[in-house]
Write a structure and sequence with these properties.
The chain is of the alpha+beta class. It has 12 helices and 11 strands. Helix 6 crosses helix 11.
């Protein structure tokens, strides 16, 4: 087999594969003969079916099967011999310039780039930290109280207050004309908890049961419904019921309901503090890791295979459609999401994956078994039955692969931090917890 390799633009390569026609025909003939031994046809005994019948029934499929196998193997052998690392799937097509007795194919493909890492000693990264304060524990306990609250009907003489649960009818109009999504009956929401636009929320406060009110509301320019974004509407609201929140008392019963078996608020606060410490650790680690990854992308320049970027774009489009379907959006199967909107993010992901892979390979940063075990055990402490969580992870390869990817990124982050110019940054607890 003769092999020619050509370098095209950037990472593109072309290989010309020449295969002897006789070898292909010999393999096709051999397979058809084996099929003839087991082929059944009306009027013939098994194994006695004429080759002409076997050829008519299986000839095309066997020819395609053999051709695909031979060309694929020739491509693998050629790229291995040339020392090429192929990125993505090649495009292989037959050429019509073959000499007699030969078949010629042209394979277009990309190779992985040679990556020369930037000078880590000149790379600037941020290492984040945060502190779990007593105030943070207090706010968390308040949140836990709200999660267990009940509601009781307010006296009819009392108006709507913050944290009340109200049931209303409302209708909005633009220039006197109702608009889609602007009307609802028996609509329920919690006052002061960000479920409604601030203007709407403030307008309802102080209203009493049975009272109606009209007020103007300007939708934000970036409002999710483009039909009303930036426009001012008039809303008519009627309050149908008002319920005041009833928070559970902070006592032994409350502490026990949250897992403090001794009913002690001191024990509950310690448990809440430990959970917050784990959450803070995970979040600052993620923020620091992002800083490392962004710095790596800036410090090292190389071309990423277009094939891999296209594949990543395809995955992101599929994920977006799946998310739309999960949210119950109609006609998702007919939705057309432009791939272009994902291209920049896809390229960054591909380049980052290649960078991380190179760092791991060059510096032996693979995840060790003890690291995987330690990570899973630490993560499991946030659950009621840690042993079950550990078993759940260890019993599934896909879940373990996800854990391994996280641990590898942690190893890379620590490796870079140890060599880069690091700036330590203390984040307020609220800012850290509010960030995505």
């Amino acid at each position: 087999m003769a092999v020619t390799v050509e370098t095209l633009e950037k990472l593109e390569r072309r290989i010309t594969l020449t295969l002897p026609f006789d070898a292909l025909q010999s393999e096709i003939s051999s397979r058809l003969k084996r099929l003839a031994l087991t082929t059944k046809a009306d009027g013939f005994r098994p194994g006695k079916v004429p080759m002409s019948v076997v050829m008519q029934r299986f000839g095309n499929s066997v020819h395609g099967e053999v051709l695909n196998e031979k060309v694929s193997q020739a491509f693998i052998d050629a790229t291995k011999e040339a020392g090429l690392r192929v990125a993505g799937r090649p495009q292989i097509a037959e050429k019509d310039t073959a000499e007699e007795g030969q078949m010629v194919f042209e394979a277009l493909f990309e190779v992985y780039p040679d990556i020369t890492l930037g000078d880590l000693s000149q790379t600037e990264v941020e290492r984040f930290s945060s502190e779990v304060t007593e105030a943070a524990i207090d706010r968390t306990i308040d949140i836990l109280r709200k999660q267990r609250r009940t509601f009781a009907v307010r006296a009819e003489s009392e108006g709507v207050m913050e944290s009340d649960r109200v049931t209303i009818d409302f209708e909005g109009k633009l220039d006197g004309v109702p608009f889609e999504g602007g009307k609802a009956d028996d609509f329920q929401f919690l006052v002061g908890e960000g479920q409604m636009l601030e203007t709407f929320d403030l307008a309802v406060r102080g209203m009493k049961k049975g009272e109606s009110k009209t007020f103007p509301l300007r939708f934000p320019d970036d409002y999710q419904s483009k039909d009303v974004a930036g426009k001012e509407a008039d809303f008519l609201v009627t309050v149908k019921s008002i319920e005041a929140q009833q928070l559970p008392e902070i006592n032994d019963m409350f502490a026990r309901s949250l897992g403090a078996l001794d009913g002690s608020m001191e024990t509950l606060r310690k448990d809440v503090g430990k959970n917050l410490e784990r959450e803070v650790k995970a979040r600052v680690m993620l923020r620091s890791k992002r800083s490392v990854m962004e710095a790596l992308l800036k410090s090292t320049q190389f071309d990423a295979p277009a094939t891999l970027i296209e594949e990543e774009v395809g995955r992101q489009v599929e994920a977006a459609l799946a998310d739309m379907k999960k949210r119950g959006m109609p006609d998702v199967d007919k939705a057309q999401i432009p791939a272009k909107i994902f291209e920049a993010q896809a390229e960054s992901r591909v380049r980052l994956a290649l960078l991380v892979s190179e760092l791991v390979r060059a510096n032996n940063l693979q995840a060790k078994p003890q690291q995987l075990q330690a990570y899973i055990e630490e993560m499991s402490q946030s659950y009621e039955n840690p042993a079950e969580v550990v078993s759940w992870y260890l019993g599934d390869r896909q879940r373990m692969a996800e854990v391994e990817a996280v641990v590898v990124e942690m190893n890379v982050s620590e490796f870079v931090m140890a060599r880069a110019k690091v700036t330590d940054k203390q984040l307020p607890f609220d800012e850290l917890m509010a960030a995505n």
